[in-house]
Amino acid sequence: MLFCSVLATASWGQDTTAAKELRRIPAPEANQGVASDAHFVYAIDDSKIGKYDKLTGKRVAEFDGDPNVFIHMNSCSVVNAELVCALSNFPHLPQISSVEWFSTRTLEHLRSHSFGPTRGSMTWIDWHEGAWWVCYANYDGKGGDPTRDHNATTLVKYSPKFVDQGAWVFPLEVLAKFGHMSASGGRFGPDGFLYVTGHDLAEMYVLKLPKSGARLEYLRTIAMPTNGQAFDWDGAKPKHVWTIERKKTEMVESVLP
Q1: Nearest-CA neighbor of 230 among 98, 91, 107, 84?
Q2: How would you class 196 by CB atoms within 10 Å of its CB: exposed for 0-12, middle for 13-18, buried for 19 or more?
Q3: What pLDDT score does 142 carry?
Q4: 123, 125, 188, 227: which is deepest, by most CB within 10 A?
Q5: What is the block-wise mean pLDDT of the chain (257 residues), using blocks of 10 residues?
Q6: According to the model, what pLDDT value does residue 16 have?
Q7: Strand, helix or coil at 63?
């Protein structure tokens, strides 16, 4: 069942604009994030994925993994007709992470790439300009390495075969917004900028790679109709984005300004 609502645009500050909510699709798996292609949206939970038809809101496939293996699947994205997912062992230590691939047609698990112990808990992975971009989240409390805090959250660029090609930390303005948490979602946009969400605030942050140095640059904030978790671009409509309302287990489509 689908239903629509609209987020009224308000004044959010000089460097802030607001997204407009369009509709919601209920999904019990909408606990960690959401992915999208042209015809379907995928609700992500720690060890589960639900595939939903965009037009009807009906679930058409599901993956139910072993929770002892799929401990914390935080986000997925669609790359070449495959669902590429970030998996970690959050909140356990030491922090270990892997990438998991699924068929978008059947949600059958296809293959895995393990990183072993990592510089944080992998929360999202994106394919952009011929490279993998991976975020390793760090936390001040539960699930965090006591030798690091949220300021150590790191974006790493990898080759197609996951050879490290560089790393950046996040802007101080955005780290302050994360609070004791970290970056839950991230995607490069068609404009080449990096869009990031935290774990809590109903905001999306627009960043760019620096010309020099090792810290990403902050550009602006977009107010969102849902609290921060992993998100994805709509696979058919430019500027449309899918997020989740975790408390209501709903996938939410919005359009960015």
Answers
A1: 84
A2: buried
A3: 86
A4: 123
A5: 34 64 98 97 98 97 98 96 97 97 98 97 97 96 89 97 97 93 94 95 96 97 94 95 96 96
A6: 66
A7: strand
The answer as to whether 239 is a domain residue is: yes
80: Cβ contacts below 8 Å, ≥ 6 apart:
none
d(CA 88, CA 91): 8
Closest CA to 137 of 42, 228, 44: 228
Q: Compute the Cα dihedral for 48, 107, 39, 80 and give only its sign.
A: positive
Residue 4 lies in a domain: no
* 78 is a domain residue: yes
Which residues touch 206 (CB under 8 Å, ≥6 apart)? Answer: 193, 194, 195, 196, 218, 219, 220, 221, 222
Specify burial of residue 57 (Cβ count, 10 A radius: 0-12, 13-18, 19+).
middle
pLDDT at 256: 94
CATH code of the domain covering residue 139: 2.120.10.30
Is 3 inside a domain boundary?
no
Give the Å distances, CA to CA, from 208 to 139, 168, 170, 236, 242: 23, 11, 10, 24, 21
Distance CA 140, CA 193 (A): 27
Q: What contacts 142, CB < 8 A, 6 or more positions away?
A: 91
Q: Residue 28 in contact with residue 57, Cβ under 8 Å?
A: no
pLDDT at residue 57 in the model: 97
